[in-house]
User: Fold SDR family oxidoreductase from Paenibacillus antri.
Amino acid sequence: MNKSLRETTVLVTGGSRGIGAAIAERFASVGMKVAIHYLEQHESANETARRCLRHGAEVLTATADLRSREQIERMQEKLEKHGMIPDIVVNNAGISHYGMLADATEADWDNVMDINLKGMFLCTQAFMPHMVSQKYGRIINVSSVWGIAGASCEVLYSTAKGGMNAFTKALAKELAPSGITVNAVAPGPVDTEMMSGFEAGEKERIAEDIPAGRFALPEEIASLVYFLALPESGYINGQIISPNGGWLT
Assistant:
């Protein structure tokens, strides 16, 4: 790729907080152009943008319901208008679901699959042609360790992330001849709001089972995503990399 890092644009979906916000700021720290997608967390997205701006990066926020092709196309038009067509797409937006499968509703299933899988599909499909045309690109999907190992009481979430992993492997083979890599980062527990549904005692017991003895920091996951996005990471393709503190080996 002939572009410098400062000429390179990254789109981070679900970039208003947690892992997504850390990813956005990591790219901004080297001067990349950063597009921060969000759905409803307008002020959180603005706060993430402000932190990115402190690094001197060019930043844009954009809202879209990733379950809607029409809204993604509107977001795409906004990015193009501002000269921020993504060379790197980080599919980070997602939701979890905790509960027994017997208690899950069809609406629960549809919501988890639509946001975690359909959103990734539609967003990738929208921004992929630019990467193909320039013979370069990076698609990085933020999955979960549960997409590899499965988790009791998280069947819907595990299924969605398992699907994301399969999507990653298949698309990597499809796009490799075009100079595009597709990888997934599948973290173990990360210290974000997504873990807020667990009580303190539950989180302590989970941490005790992790050889590292703690949850990951969002910044640690962001560093791996950034590494996979670099031009020199071009031979890493179709991989599901799980930073989990030695929990799953």
Notes: Residues 106-134 form the longest helix (29 residues).
